[in-house]
Amino acid sequence: MSMDNTIAPLSVKDLSCRYTRQNNYALRDISFTAKAGTITGVLGPNGAGKSTFLKSILDLLPHEGSVKFFDGTLAKNRQKIAYIPQRSSVDWDFPVSALDVCLMGLYPRIGWLRRISKAHKEEAMHYLEQVKLQDFAHRQIGALSGGQQQRVFMARALAQQAELFLLDEPMAGVDQKTQTLLFDLFSDLKQKGKTMLIIHHNLQAASAHFDHILLLNQTLVAQGAPEQALSEDAINRAYSPIEA
User: Fold this and answer.
1) What class has domain 10-238?
2) Model confidence pLDDT, tens digit, residues 106-137
3) Which of 69, 70, 161, 199 is the most exposed place for a label (fewest CB within 10 A)?
4) What's the whole-model pTM score?
5) Parallel/antiparallel/unpaired status of strands 212-217 and 81-84
6) How far apart are CA 146 and CA 242, in angstroms?
């Protein structure tokens, strides 16, 4: 069941984040509200603060400013929020199968100490089928390709039955088949009223697949519909070196 469209799944006001032990900022004064049932792309050059933005929103980094989820706190709405970090930040040697990872999305609903039942495994398999990985359910996660690993983490987010999806470079290092599958999946989730915030690097793909764009380079250079936020002037400002 989707959320009330009148309630913003995410509202960020004056978000800033300082570098550790330094007085200069990785991000400064970012304000943004995500509407329910939309896909927002977060774009900008390397070092622009895109990953820092997601991590600050999720309280993984200390920050200034305010963040609201569904008009409440992160703690009260954590189950509604799925975060998929960059693949490079994951320990792929961990001895778990694709099915095990997908089942993790169910744990908040079934309880961490309760026994995993046949019905739970069947539900997890359903989500693996949605990302076309049912035949790899018992494969160790590190033995999968980059694209397959990304699809497993997407299956875990689906199993969580999240309303807000925060994805950090889901298309990085994945094959064309996975990119197409993920974009189709994002479109399907949008139709179901889900909301997505996706860090991406391809300007052309962002224009084709995203409703809203945040163009970052330590500050918010532009935001709006793709044709507005990705104007030639905005792109030049975002991808030009920042003056000290």
Assistant:
1) alpha beta
2) 987 777 667 788 898 999 999 999 999 999 99
3) 161
4) 0.89
5) unpaired
6) 33
